[in-house]
Design a protein that fits this description.
Keywords: Membrane, Transmembrane, Transmembrane helix. This protein is an all-alpha fold. The protein folds into two domains: 54 residues; 241 residues, no CATH class. Helix 2 crosses helix 12 and helix 4 runs antiparallel to helix 6. It starts with a helix and ends with a helix.
């Protein structure tokens, strides 16, 4: 009876290990039980089988609880601190833009001055965002490996909470409700974008991962801006050419790039349209610009590491057995 119970427990324990090494481990455990059975030690046999069935699959650095404390803390710290850091980066970019404003050009060529101002702000924010992305890629090497979907959710949710808290704290309360649908759309969309990018990176397709991530992030942010403007602009003001307090819906898909780069000189949305859209969406385009690089960098780096993790674990365990 004890032998049958121990054999069942060994089968349970073996199923928790990778298929490549499962059979070798099972034979090794059966040999240990056979030695104990020949000695007539039923209690040690049962204790040994129970310990194998209840223990963790491996005392490997990837799975061992004691060695996971550091990576867990580092990952949690990064997920919580990176969104405020990106928010500060966006604020620094806008502040540096204000220092470069040229009052004379603003009086003589307001269209060119607006174009240069928006492009300068986007450039500064992008520079700070890229620096944060480089740091994120390095920190991902010592983080906790995760699947594409948990990784995407863990990265995006703190960003959404940070933006909501920032708007509620430093801006008028009605502005939070104005951009909340945009924020929800962006968060849900970025979870999907990061999931696709992480899956591509885990399979070794790095260029595809970055292309999907950058293009998807732009589309999601663009649709978020369009959603906010359409939700808060009367239908009768969405006309060709636009007029105050309205905006032309003809160039809706170009609202986001024109906010970041300034109105096109002679083409695209008019200066009035860009100013109107900018007043509605507030700082969200710059925040999305600051978040996107580090989100993609961390997701891609972590997915690459997680994608090679199982193979490395199997190799290590096979080396121990041999």
């Amino acid at each position: 009876m004890v032998t049958r119970v121990c054999a069942a427990l060994l089968r349970v324990a073996a199923r928790r290990w990778p298929a490549e090494i499962r059979a070798d481990l099972h034979r090794e455990w059966q040999a240990e039980l056979h030695v104990l059975a020949e000695q007539g030690r039923a209690a040690p046999m049962l204790a040994y089988a129970v310990s194998l069935a209840l223990s963790r699959p491996a005392a490997d650095p990837v799975l061992d609880r004691s060695s996971m404390t550091g990576p867990v803390l580092r990952t949690a710290a990064f997920l919580l601190l990176a969104p405020p850091a990106a928010t500060v980066a966006a604020g620094l970019g806008l502040w540096l833009m204000s220092l470069t404003a040229h009052d004379g050009l603003l009086r003589t060529r307001p269209d060119l001055a607006l174009h240069l101002r928006e492009a300068t702000a986007a450039l500064f924010v992008t520079c700070f965002a890229v620096l944060l992305a480089v740091l994120a890629a390095r920190l991902a090497r010592w983080g906790v490996p995760a699947g594409p979907l948990p990784l995407a959710i863990g990265l995006v949710v703190p960003c959404g909470i940070t933006v909501a808290m920032f708007i509620a704290t430093f801006m008028q309360s009605d502005k939070l409700w104005r951009v909340l649908p945009e924020l929800v759309l962006w968060s849900a969309g970025m979870v999907g974008v990061l999931w696709l990018a992480a899956r591509a990176a885990a399979l070794g397709h790095l260029r595809l991962a970055w292309c999907v991530g950058l293009l998807g992030a732009f589309v999601v942010a663009d649709l978020g801006v369009v959603l906010t403007v359409l939700n808060h602009t009367p239908v009768r003001y969405l006309v060709e050419g636009g007029f105050e307090p309205g905006v032309s819906g003809t160039w809706a898909l170009l609202w986001l790039p024109m906010i970041l780069l300034g109105p096109g000189l002679g083409w695209g949305p008019s200066q009035e349209d860009v100013l109107y859209v900018g007043d509605l969406v507030e700082l969200s385009p710059y925040l999305f610009l600051a978040f996107t690089p580090y989100l993609l960098a961390y997701a891609v780096a972590t997915a690459r590491r997680s994608g090679h993790g199982p193979a490395r674990l199997v190799g290590d365990q096979a080396g121990r057995i041999s």
